[in-house]
Write a structure and sequence with these properties.
With 390 residues, the protein is of the alpha/beta class. The chain folds into 2 domains: 17-189 and 374-389, Rossmann fold (3-Layer(aba) Sandwich), CATH 3.40.50.2000; 202-371, 3-Layer(aba) Sandwich (Rossmann fold), CATH 3.40.50.2000. It has helices spanning 35-49, 63-70, 86-98, 108-121, 134-137, 141-156, 166-176, 202-206, 227-239, 256-265, 281-285, 302-309, 340-352, 354-371, 374-389, and strands at 24-28, 54-59, 75-78, 102-106, 125-130, 160-163, 183-185, 213-218, 245-250, 272-276, 290-293, 314-317, 333-335. It has a 7-stranded parallel β-sheet, with helices on both faces. It has a 6-stranded parallel β-sheet with strand order 10-9-8-11-12-13, sandwiched between helices. The radius of gyration is 21 Å and the shape is elongated. It starts with 23 loop residues before the first strand and ends with a helix.
Length: 390
C-alpha cells in the first residue's frame, strides 16, 4: 500500500500567498462522483501551479482517484473502506512523512478521521470544507447524527470551516455555534471555457426529432435531486399534447432503477433518454435548452454554474444557497420545492417563449463572469488556509 504521493512537487516557491503555505494534506474519502471532486481538483491544480507541496488522500479506485492520477496530481490512494478505523493510522503516517502543516477534510467520513489524525499528530492547521447540510443528506436519523458528529468533533478541535453556499454557512452558525471568525463562505466557482466545447450529436445519441426542446437533469440519481417531480411534470405536459419536450437524464446513482421504472409507469420512454455517467457534460450542454434542478436540498451545485457559463437557462427549486445569488426571472427561473404542477407550468412557459429562455441564459452567463469565477473561489480557499495556520 502506497501512502505517499504518487508524483512529486519540486517547483520553486513564488511570491504569492500560496508560497507561504506548509505542506498540505487534502482528504476526500467519498466513493461517488460529485461536486466535491470538482472543487478538490480545482484546488489541487492551483496548488501545483503555485509550487505548493501537497497530497490528496482518496479511496483507491474512485473516480476522484482516477482523475487525479490522470492529471498527474499528487494522490495517496487507500485500499480500504472509508469506514475502516485504520484510515486514521494511514493519515497519521501521511502527515508525518510529508511533514504536513495543514489538513483540509471534505465530507463527513473524511472530517471524522482527519480530526483524529490531527489530534494524534498535533497538526496545527486544521480546515473542514463543508459542501452540504448533513441532516438533509440522509433520511435516517442515526446517519444524520453520525455525520454531524464529525463536525462537532472538528469544532471542538479548533478547525476552521469553509462552506460552499449560504445555507451551509447558516447551518454551521446556527446548529453548531461556530464562531464567524472560524467560518468562511466560499461559493463554488469555475474557470471560463478557453474554447467552445465540441457540439453534441443529439440525434445520433437519442434519435429525437430535430424540433425537440431538450431538457436535462444532471447529477447523481438520488432522491434529493427530485427526478420524480420533473418526470411528473413532463408526463402532464405530454398528456396536454406537448410533443416537443425531451429529457436527458445524465448521471448514475442508487435511484436509477426506481427512476427508470417511473419513466415506464408514466409512459415516457419516447421522451426520456438515460445517458449514464458522462465525462462530456460540456458537450452535452451545447444541445440543452433548459437545465432542470428540481432538488429538495442543495448548496450551489456545479451543474448550475456550468449551465450559466454556457448561457443555458436553469429551472430550479427555490433553495437557500441558490436564490441568494441567482435572481428569479432574470438569471434563473425558480419553482416551488416538490411541486410538479409548478414545474409543469414553468416548463410550458419556457417551451413557448424561446426568446425568454435565451435571455435568461445570457443574463446567467454575465452573472457567472462577475460572481462565480474560480479565481475568486481559490482566493477564499487561500484565506481560510491562512486563517487556520494563525
Amino acid at each position: 500500500m502506497s501512502l505517499v504521493p504518487q508524483t512529486g512537487m519540486s517547483i520553486a516557491a513564488n511570491a504569492s500567498g500560496w508560497s507561504s503555505l506548509p505542506p498540505i494534506v487534502i482528504v476526500c474519502l467519498a466513493i461517488r462522483h460529485g461536486g466535491v471532486d470538482v472543487r478538490i481538483v480545482q484546488t489541487a491544480r492551483k496548488l501545483r501551479e503555485e509550487g505548493c507541496n501537497f497530497v490528496v488522500v482518496v479511496i483507491q479506485g474512485t473516480g476522484l482517484h482516477r482523475t487525479l492520477r490522470d492529471l498527474d496530481l499528487p494522490v495517496a490512494a487507500l485500499p480500504r473502506s472509508r469506514l475502516d478505523p485504520r484510515v486514521v493510522l494511514d493519515l497519521v503516517r501521511i502527515i508525518r512523512r510529508s511533514q504536513a502543516g495543514l489538513i483540509d477534510a471534505h465530507n463527513g467520513q473524511s472530517q471524522y478521521w482527519a480530526a483524529l489524525a490531527a489530534l494524534a499528530t498535533g497538526l496545527r492547521g486544521r480546515v473542514a470544507t463543508v459542501h452540504s447540510v448533513y441532516r438533509e443528506d440522509h433520511a435516517r436519523r442515526w446517519r444524520q447524527k453520525v455525520h454531524e458528529s464529525a463536525l462537532h468533533l472538528c469544532k471542538r478541535l479548533g478547525f476552521g470551516f469553509l462552506t460552499v453556499s449560504s445555507n451551509v454557512q447558516r447551518y454551521m452558525l446556527d446548529e453548531f455555534g461556530v464562531s464567524p471568525s472560524r467560518l468562511l463562505l466560499s461559493r463554488n466557482g469555475m474557470e471560463d471555457l478557453a474554447e467552445p466545447p465540441a457540439p453534441f450529436n443529439l440525434r445520433r445519441e437519442t434519435g429525437w426529432p430535430e424540433d425537440s426542446v431538450v431538457l436535462a437533469i444532471i447529477g447523481r440519481l438520488d432522491p434529493r435531486k427530485g427526478h420524480r417531480f420533473l418526470l411528473a411534470a413532463l408526463a402532464a405536459l405530454v398528456r396536454d399534447g406537448e410533443r416537443r419536450a425531451r429529457l436527458l437524464v445524465v448521471g448514475t446513482g442508487r435511484e436509477e432503477a426506481a427512476i427508470r421504472a417511473k419513466v415506464r409507469e408514466l409512459q415516457l420512454d419516447e421522451y426520456v433518454h438515460f445517458t449514464g455517467f458522462r465525462s462530456d457534460v460540456l458537450s452535452i450542454l451545447t444541445a440543452v435548452d433548459v437545465l432542470c434542478l428540481p432538488s429538495t436540498s442543495e448548496g450551489l451545485p456545479y451543474s448550475v454554474i456550468e449551465a450559466a457559463r454556457q448561457s443555458v437557462p436553469t429551472l430550479a427549486s427555490r433553495l437557500e444557497g441558490t436564490d441568494d445569488i441567482f435572481v428569479d426571472g432574470e438569471t434563473i427561473l425558480f419553482t416551488r420545492i416538490g411541486d410538479a404542477d409548478d414545474i409543469r407550468d414553468k416548463l410550458r412557459f419556457l417551451l413557448e417563449n424561446p426568446d425568454r429562455r435565451r435571455g435568461i441564459g445570457a443574463a446567467a452567463r454575465q452573472m457567472f463572469l462577475k460572481d462565480l469565477t474560480v479565481e475568486r473561489m481559490l482566493g477564499e480557499t487561500l484565506e481560510i488556509y491562512t486563517r487556520a495556520l494563525r
